[in-house]
Automatic annotation (TrEMBL):
Origin superkingdom: Eukaryota
GO BP terms, alphabetized: lipoprotein metabolic process
Signal sequence annotation: none
InterPro entries listed in its UniProt record: Lipovitellin_superhlx_dom, MTTP, Vitellogenin_N
Record-given protein name: MTP protein
């Protein structure tokens, strides 16, 4: 079906989208996203009205875009255009921002960061939104998007939110840092994770401290880090202690 869509003309894809039975429409939308031909993406652009379509249909489209294994710049542009300046349902907006981060990250993995203007626009949309976010829930969504994008230049921003932000924001920022490969987990990042786990500056939520410990254990841990983490288990809840002991055992194996 995807192969057929790749060779179809725009008007045929639009017709297919408009005449598909309601229960089949999500399948056709996902297939059109997967096809990623100029015609199929143009047809989706014409067909999807983010001001009128049911939330479930729009989220279906955004999920399909986010999970696309090798997205194109055109697909990212379509998502950006559909989100730009629209009054959206909160669920659709959240899914769209997180999907945007995923698309940016995958395009950069394909070494297309500097070749696609859409990537720069996507990054600026996320960072600009983060700077202007007023509610904690909004900040968390933008941090999730940065976690999906996995851009090394955003690590200082994530560290700042991890150490200085309120509980939910700190947890989201540390979780985003977990997505980065070892080569980007610098000594500066590790020092911050030690401060968070050992609560040197303030108290942190359990999940935030565990995520910080995971970063330390999963990225070439030093003997002293392992010793300090094990010593800390004497003062932790049973669940946290069990989790950390299993992580250390896995590292030893």
């Amino acid at each position: 079906f995807i192969q057929m869509l790749r060779s179809a003309k725009k008007r045929d894809v639009v017709q297919l989208l408009r005449t598909a039975p309601e229960e089949m429409l999500p399948f056709v939308v996902e297939a059109a996203v997967a096809a990623q031909s100029v015609a199929s993406l143009a047809a989706l652009s014409d067909f999807l009205d983010f001001g009128k379509e049911p939330k479930s249909m729009l989220e279906n489209f955004l999920y399909a875009a986010a999970f696309s294994p090798r997205p194109s710049g055109e697909l990212l542009r379509l998502v950006l255009d559909k989100l730009d300046g629209k009054q959206l349902a909160p669920e659709v907006w959240e899914t769209g921002i997180v999907a945007m981060g995923s698309l940016v990250g995958k395009l950069c993995q394909q070494k297309l960061c500097e070749l696609q203007q859409e990537v720069e626009r996507g990054v600026e949309t996320i960072l600009g939104g983060l700077r202007g976010a007023k509610e904690e829930s909004e900040v968390v969504i933008y941090l999730l998007a940065l976690g999906n994008a996995v851009l090394p230049e955003t690590i200082p921003i994530l560290l700042d939110h991890a150490e200085e932000g309120p509980a939910t924001i700190a947890t989201a920022a540390v979780s985003a840092l977990k997505r980065f490969p070892t080569r980007h987990i610098s000594s500066k990042v590790k020092r911050a994770m030690r401060r968070i786990f050992h609560e040197k500056r303030k108290s942190y939520e359990k999940m935030c401290r565990l995520a910080a410990a995971e970063i330390l254990l999963d990225n070439e841990p030093s003997p002293m880090d392992i010793i300090n983490l094990l010593l800390a288990t004497n003062e932790l809840e049973t669940e946290m202690t069990t989790f950390l002991m299993l992580k250390v055992q896995n590292s030893l194996r």
